[in-house]
Design a protein that fits this description.
POT_fam, two-stranded antiparallel sheet, mainly alpha, Growth Hormone, Chain: A, MFS_trans_sf, transmembrane transporter activity, membrane, globular, 599 residues, 1% strand, 2 strands
């Protein structure tokens, strides 16, 4: 009896060992993550944000003063650079999803610039002694920016006033600058929104992830405030090299914090390239377009993947054996098994571009459901970008005095960043707890949060139009329409209210969008989901430029003389576009059904 039972006993013992090992790994994973990782990630976010702000906020001035670039060309280069910086995180998210996972991509992107700095230090000519005192190891492309700020051979001869035409930068000098911008894009692409995904992967509940996303935007914008103020002040009053060096030091501290927390992070493995599977769904559905679906019943004719041992348990396989949903039913053909698609012996795929799993089809449908909501943010981003650019021009033509201090026109944008930080804090600490008390524990949904952001954006742009109308009234009252240099006595502080509203709106719709995409996107696209906001921001930069160009070509609203402009008409046009877009958003939100939010 003992002999006959020995063999099965060994088998069960082996299975128990495997189960114990699996449970141990699961237990170890659960011990990692949580709020204990947040201090490391927060410092990394803050350091990277300071570096980014310090490297980009004063780029136009740097190009004009140090590279003798004409002002319009400098603005165009800056816009292109900012657009590329916004798109780069999408590439980093795709790489993280498909190949390496989130943490390695974030870490390597931050280490990458350190290696560039070492190489540059070894192969470039040594700096003067006094310059060494101002340089610190730094991240992003900051090494190149600092070197160009320090090495006179890497930039043209400084342009002195009243000394004739300036010497333009040579092709080689511009190439060095573009390399720096490229390296900045590489570093931002790997780390910017992947940091948010890495942080979200440390938590099990949606409530914790929502708080994490709120704090991500707090640190992102607070660090930008430091970059836009303190770093710009150092660059303008001390030296460009020291300014970029301080930014680099902040980024280095961020990298050290990220690495110190390595042992505590959860690191979900990459899911493989999700876009190949999505493309297969579209191709397979198209190739089976003529297949009659009317006679099919249940899920027996649909492919669920190769059978596993666990699938022998009927109870365990109920969820995995369900047929595809009825929405976008034409795509269900992609999972329909036809002759020659799979092998009869083990269910492996023979023709991968003619058959997909039901789960892959459902993932594709999820993207189709979310895309209309995502598209509603494009007009928001266009309006936001346009408002920022023209607010600076408004401020230049208004009284910016605060006592004995004159506020720099570009620093008015800091009001938006401060408003974002304060608004997110109020939403997280006041609005959400109050809502839970009034609604028996329910928090505002991502769609409700985004919708509120739409409303604030409309009000903000309308307020900008009203302020501009007031400014033009003072211009007309003084008869200064023909004087482009005349400054209105109207205080620039009237711009504070629309900027505060713009920041509050962004604090609602951008974090709300990230929450929605992260929760609703397929598991294989978690990194890409947070990068979708980057695409919106990039489109905002590019389409804002296109909109202004169309307005200038078709109307007389935007002459070079701000005192003869009708900027208020442009703002009202944006308000109308935002209102129409809000109606479109309400329709999309009404038709949308959450897949994961609240579960």
């Amino acid at each position: 009896m003992e002999t006959s039972s020995q063999e099965p006993g060994v088998s069960h013992k082996n299975l128990n060992v495997v189960d114990q090992e699996s449970q141990q790994q699961s237990s170890d994973a659960k011990k990692k993550g949580g709020w204990s990782t947040f201090p490391f990630l927060a410092v990394a976010m803050f350091g990277l944000g300071i570096a980014r702000g310090g490297a980009t906020s004063n780029l136009v001035v740097y190009l004009v003063e140090k590279y003798n670039v004409p002002r319009v060309d400098a603005a165009q280069i800056s816009s292109i650079a900012l657009g590329c910086l916004s798109l780069a995180p999408v590439g980093g998210a795709v790489v993280a999803d498909a190949f390496f996972g989130c943490y390695p991509v974030v870490a390597v992107s931050m280490v990458f610039s350190v290696l560039v700095y070492i190489i540059a230090t070894l192969f470039l000519s040594p700096l003067p002694v006094e310059t060494h005192q101002h340089l610190l190891p730094h991240m992003q492309s900051l090494v190149v920016f600092t070197l160009t700020a320090s090495f006179h051979g890497l930039r043209p001869t400084p342009c002195e006033l009243n000394t004739g035409p300036c010497d333009p930068a040579s092709t080689g000098q511009m190439a060095v600058l573009y390399i720096g911008i490229f390296l900045l894009c590489v570093s931002a692409g790997g780390a910017r929104f992947n940091q948010a995904t890495l942080g979200a992967s440390q938590f099990d509940t949606q409530a914790d992830r929502d708080v994490l996303f709120n704090w991500y935007f707090v640190f992102f914008n607070a660090s930008s405030v430091v970059g836009y103020t303190a770093i710009v002040y150092v660059q303008d009053t001390v030296s460009w090299a020291l300014g970029y060096g301080v930014s680099g030091a902040a980024s280095l501290v961020g990298l050290m914090a990220l690495l110190l927390g390595t042992r505590y992070y959860r690191r979900p493995p990459p899911q493989g390239s999700p876009f190949t599977a999505l493309a297969r769904v579209a191709v397979a559905a198209a190739r089976k377009w003529k297949v009659n679906m009317g006679t099919l019943e249940g899920s027996a004719s649909f492919y669920h993947g190769r059978p596993r041992d666990s699938d022998m348990d009927d109870d365990a396989s109920d969820d995995t054996k369900r047929g595809p949903s009825n929405s976008f039913s034409s795509l269900n053909r992609a999972a329909l098994i036809t002759d020659g698609d799979v092998t009869a012996s083990d269910g492996s795929v023979v023709r991968p571009w003619r058959i997909c799993t039901v789960q892959q089809v459902e993932d594709f449908k999820t993207l189709l459901r979310v895309m209309p909501l995502w598209s509603t943010s494009i007009v928001l981003s266009v309006a936001f970008g346009t408002q920022i650019n023209f607010t600076v021009l408004q401020a230049l033509a208004m009284n910016r005095a605060l006592g004995r201090f004159t506020v720099p026109a570009s620093s008015m944008i800091v009001i938006i960043l401060v408003s974002i930080v304060i608004s997110i804090g109020l939403f997280d600490r006041v609005v959400q707890p109050l809502t839970r008390r009034l609604t028996s524990g329910r928090s505002p949904t991502p769609l409700q949060r985004i919708g509120a952001g739409h409303v604030l954006a409309i009000v903000s742009v309308a307020m900008s139009a009203i302020v501009e109308r007031q400014r033009m009234d003072t211009v007309h009252a003084h008869g200064e329409e023909g004087n482009a240099r005349w400054v209105s006595p109207l205080s620039a502080m009237w711009l504070v209210l629309p900027l505060v509203l713009a920041g509050a709106g962004e604090a609602l719709y951008f974090p709300g969008g990230v929450m929605l995409y992260y929760e609703e996107f397929p598991a294989a696209l978690k990194n890409t989901s947070t990068g979708m906001v980057a695409v919106i921001i990039a489109l905002g930069f590019y389409l804002s430029t296109a909109l202004v160009d169309v307005v200038r070509r078709t109307t007389a609203w935007l002459p070079n003389n701000m005192n003869a402009s009708r900027l208020d008409n442009l703002y009202w046009l944006l308000a109308v576009l935002l209102a129409v877009n809000f109606v479109y958003y309400l329709v999309c939100a009404r038709l949308y059904r959450y897949q994961n939010v609240g579960k």
